[in-house]
Every structure is written in structure tokens, then in C-alpha cells.
Amino acid sequence: MTRILALGDVVGPLGTDFVCKNLLTLKAQTKADLVIVNGENCTRAYNLDTQSASALFAAGADVITGGNHTMQYDQVHGMLRTNDCLLRPHNYPVAAPGKGWCIVPLNNGKRVLVINLSGQAMIEPSADNPYSCCQKILYDRKGEYDYAVCDFHAESTGEKIAFFRYFDGQIAVMFGTHTHVQTADERLLYKGSACITDLGMCGAHDSVIGSDVTAAVTRYRTATRVLNADRTEPSGDMQLCGALFEISDETGYCTAVTRICYKKG
Ligand SMILES: [Fe+2]
User: What is 2-264's CATH number, 3.60.21.10, 3.40.50.300, 3.40.190.10, 3.40.50.720?
Assistant: First the structure.
């Protein structure tokens, strides 16, 4: 059995600290062979810096996936180019720093291809077609991996589910990220894959998808975005959301997917 633990978008420094403090325990409890964390919102400005990425790796993340915020802070561009396990969506323009796939050799001898892609609906408009991009990665890396995993970073639930249905049987583990709201639709598909439309977020529970409640309400109610207030990080109880996927090493099929969401003060 190969177990893959995936955590949804880590939001803000407090969310990052919470994940760092709890990840080793969660990894032990779930007996995870591989830990994938979406880290595109770790900083107070809701993007990524090298300190947050290094902290997540040190805490037990094997791969950090990203999304539309990953490259907003140029301080992280060098790390995206040099660290194979720090990913951004691969279907971004080729001139963007970094790449969106890596192959991780596990202690149990299995090799896992991790792919990170962006949707095209209501998100980054310059992202290429995720289907052709994904097919090319799978084709180019054929023979180099045992199982494939995909973080499909997208806004539209329909776009995510359609992608999962198309790649059922080709990518054992598929999950969505980006909305910060966990969906309750984790399921085994028909050709051996498992999926969940969105993993949810790791951050402050008393928030608006990780943002300060007052600032978010003001922004939507008055169309006034006050940047300093907008970046006030909500505190209080933290939540950690994701999912555990179990793959049978005999069949290569995903045999179980379990949603994870716990809160702690
Ligand atoms: Fe995002």
C-alpha cells in the first residue's frame, strides 16, 4: 500500500506555522509515504517566499505545489528554478520560472510523478490547455514512474471534475485546490483513480477563505480594498484540511480516499 497525504492551500504565516507544528504528527498518524502541500498562500501577502517554502519542506512536506499566487513574489523565483520539488502550474507560459512536475522516489521503492496544473476558467487567463499539457507530461515521463498524482489548481468545480473524469485510470490521485473551501465529494472513480474537487485550506477557521472577516466584508460591501487591513492575518482556531489517498501496490488502483479536516486552538 502506498499512502499519499495532500494538504490544501496553506494560508498566511499562522497557517504555515500550524502546518509546520502538526505535519510530522499527521504524517505518522496517517502512515503517509508522500506528503504534498499546496503552498501558494503562505505569506501575509498571500503568496510564497523562500522562508515559508523551506519551513514546509523542513516540517515534512515532500512536494510543494502552487497556483496563481506562487510567482507573485520574485524572491521565490530562484528557488522555483532550482528546487525540483517546488512546483507551479506546468501549463503557465514557458518563460515563467520553474516547472510543474517532479518524480519522487519513495522509501517503499515506488516512484511518484507529481503534476501541478492550472484551470482556465475564472483563473489565470494565459494558462495553456491543461489536458494537452498533462498528456504530454504523462507521455514524456512514461516508464519513469509507478503512480501519478495531480494538483489541479482551479476555481470551477465543473472544470475540475471533468478533468478528473478524463484522467481516471491514468492518474491515480487527483485533487483540486484554490477555492480554500473543502468539498465533500471525495470518491473512487471507475478506472482506478480517486479524487476530491477541493482539499480546502490550512489556516484560520474564523476568516473569509483565510482573510480577515472585516476586511473581506468591507471589500465586497463597499468595493474598497484597503491593502493594510486586507492583509491583517486572522488568528484564533486553525484548521488543517486535506485528504489521504491509499493506492494498492498490487493493482496500482487507488482503493481509498479519506477527507481530513481538523481544528485546533
Ligand atoms: Fe490559488
Answer: 3.60.21.10
Taking the domains of the chain in order of start, what are their residue ranges? 2-264
Chain centroid to CA 29: how far? 20
Residues, beta carbon < 5 Å, ion ligand 1 = 67-68, 178
* Spacing, Cα 178 to ligand 1 middle (Å): 4
- Give the model confidence (pLDDT) of 74-132 as tens digits: 999 999 999 999 999 999 999 999 999 999 999 999 999 999 999 999 998 899 999 99
Residue count of the chain, please give it.
265
Burial class of residue 265 in the structure, from the number of CB atoms within 10 Å of its CB (0-12 exposed, 13-18 middle, 19+ buried): exposed
Query: Which one-letter DSSP state was computed for residue 128?
Result: P
Whether this model's pTM surpasses 0.85? yes
pLDDT at residue 52 in the model: 98
139 CA from centroid of ligand 1 (Å): 27
The catalytic residues are 69
Ligand 1 centre to CA of 220 (Å) is 19
- Ligand 1: centre distance to CA 108 (Å): 32
Angle between helices 130-140 and 157-166 (to 10 degrees): 30
- Predicted pLDDT at 230: 60
Give tens-digit pLDDT for 222-241. 988 777 666 678 888 999 99
- Please tell me the distance between residue 9's alpha carbon and the centre of ligand 1 in angstroms: 8
